[in-house]
Amino acid sequence: MTNDAQPRTQWLGRWGFVLAATGSAVGLGNVWKFPYMTGEYGGGAFVLVYLACILALGVPVMMTEIALGRRGRGSPIDAIRRVAAESGGASLWSLLGWMAMLCGFMILCFYVVVAGWSFSYLWKMLSGGLAGSSVDDMAAIFGANNESPLNLGFWSTLVTLATMVIVGKGVQAGIEKSVSWMMPGMVVMLLIMIAYGAFSGGFGDALHFLFAFNAGSLSSEGMLAAMGHAFFTLSLASGAILTYGSYLPRNASIGRTTLTVAVADTLVALMAGLAIFPVIFANGMEPGSGPGLIFMSLPLAFQAMPLGTLFGVLFFIMLSMAALTSSISMVEATVSWLTDNKGISRRAAAWGTGIVLWIISTLAMLSFNVGAEWTLAGKHFFGWLDYLTSRWMMPLGGLGMVLLAGFVLKSETLREELGLSPAMHALWLFMVRYVSPLGIVVIFVDALGIATLDFGEQWPWLLLVLAVIAVIGELASPRLKRVLSA
Question: Which parts of the chain are coiled coil (predicted)?
Fold first, then answer.
């Protein structure tokens, strides 16, 4: 175990971590993106591919991040530096920690703006501000919501303040206490909406939309979408999971805990689909994607259903809590680093970070109104934050994590931390060395548009290529380890 880590606050129990990590993973994307992708790319066939990608790509990388965090007992920068040094690795590996911490903070700079939409729509639902008779009317309301910098700025500022208040209270009194009621509350509200949907008349259509097994509609694009979403939905390579892992008690099983988080994240995403789409189908609407579904079609459907205002309020409360639990996790790495390295209190670190976050997020917020024309290479500030983090920093960070764990660290380092049986550890090591890197590279290449990837019916050939890479990798492993450790 590393010997320069300072005593560190820990979760009160394993479930504190599970709820916090699940809250980090369950965000706005789970509520609309995963259900829509499921129906768009083949229903049950897409779900099976997605689950396979979670097991093959998401779970191994998440286990790696948690293990690195708990082993190093620090922020991403400190934890990676300590664990790499323990195995004789170069100090440059700490740059992975810098990238992860910066990535999470940059994501949060535009995420608070999107989260502000949820809070503003909760208020509109309560105050009757969502009156409209068509999707076009709702689109006009959504546009007006973004065109006012004072309105949009108010709600994004509210999200920033709420996040910093919770994070400033600490790991146990702030984060763990908050997610201990927000996550169960979110699940309860989803169950209430699912129960209503079961009697709405659109439940059968929703089940078919989400789960009908149609292998013919699962294209290469769908497979890549499943791989990409499996990686990004678990908040990997953004500093959140690694930092949360640094608070994990020594006696908690990393493997069992990771599987619990992955299953919970997937279940919440599927439950969101079962809550949303019965309402959409019962009112004769076409299931759209993105903000169009959540902020335009769904509010219109709530108006047409009995007790629609009540269910609309419940839905936007749930959406706001999902947004808040994710924003809490994305800022924790920065606050953790400041408290560990700058000798300042957690409260001061939280509010100092909040001020910088507010300034940068204001620039992102202005991209929707007065700053819409402030573009560089065709992208405004909001778009650049999204592009740099999702297309570059997260894939590169994830690739660096698995290379560090698979080829640089001493074999006993993470074997001891993970506590797996010999057979399971060998499986994890194989996935981290070969399957996860290959998957991340595929996502990276596709996201950047470097090449058009078409799996078609080439799965046997891809498996053969993976086997060849694994054999070559094992033969070259000692030399590769020396190169990466230099």
Answer: none
285 and 300 Cβ atoms separated by less than 8 Å: yes
Give the Å distances, CA to CA, from 441 to 47, 224, 317.
Answer: 22, 11, 37
Confidence of residue 467 (pLDDT cuts 50, 70, 90): low
Map residue 250 onto helix, strand or coil: coil
DSSP-derived secondary structure letter, 320 = H
Nearest to 298 by CA among 111, 36, 115: 36
Question: Is the dihedral angle over the CA atoms 252, 253, 254, 256 positive or is it negative?
Answer: negative
156-160: Cβ within 8 A, 24+ apart = 156/112, 156/113, 156/115, 156/116, 156/361, 156/362, 156/365, 157/358, 158/116, 158/119, 159/112, 159/115, 159/116, 159/119, 159/323, 159/324, 159/327, 160/112, 160/354, 160/357, 160/358, 160/361
User: How far, in Å, CA of 287 to CA of 415, rounded?
Assistant: 46
CA distances in angstroms from 283 to 126, 132, 136, 310, 313, listed in the order given = 21, 15, 16, 17, 18
Question: Under CATH, which number does the domain 14-455 receive?
Answer: 1.20.1740
242-251, 316-325, 331-340, 457-466 — which is least confidently predicted? Answer: 457-466
Report the distance separating Cα 334 and Cα 354, nearest Å: 10
Which of 410, 428, 27, 414 is CA-nearest to residue 238? 27
Those residues whose C-beta lies under 8 Å from the C-beta of residue 330, and which sit 6 or more positions away, are 24, 104, 105, 107, 108, 111, 235, 238, 239, 240
Query: What does the block give as tokens for 421?
Result: 């049986």
- Alpha-carbon distance of 233 to 24, in angstroms, equals 9
Whether 282 shows a pLDDT value over 60: the answer reads yes
**Which of 204, 156, 211 is CA-nearest to residue 43?**
211
The string of DSSP letters for 415-464 reads: HHHH---HHHHHHHHHIIIIIHHHHHHHHHHHHHTSS----TT-HHHHHH
Per the rule left: phi > 0, alpha: psi between -120 and 50, beta: everything else, 74 is beta
Confidence of residue 332 (pLDDT cuts 50, 70, 90): very high
Q: Whole-structure pTM over 0.70, yes or no? A: yes
Cα–Cα nearest to 159, from 24, 325, 19, 299: 325
Q: What is the DSSP string of 132-195?
A: -SSHHHHHHHHHHHHH-HHHHHHHHHHHHHHHHHHHHT-IIIIIIHHHHHHHHHHHHHHHHHHH
Helix 308-341 vs helix 346-366: crossing angle, to nearest 10: 120
Q: What is the pLDDT of residue 23?
A: 87
Which residues, in sequence order, are bridge partners of residue 379?
A: 376
pLDDT tens by residue, 283-326? 777 776 566 778 888 888 888 778 888 989 999 999 899 899 99
Q: Average model confidence (pLDDT) for the chain?
A: 85
Q: Say whether pLDDT at 485 is over 60.
A: no
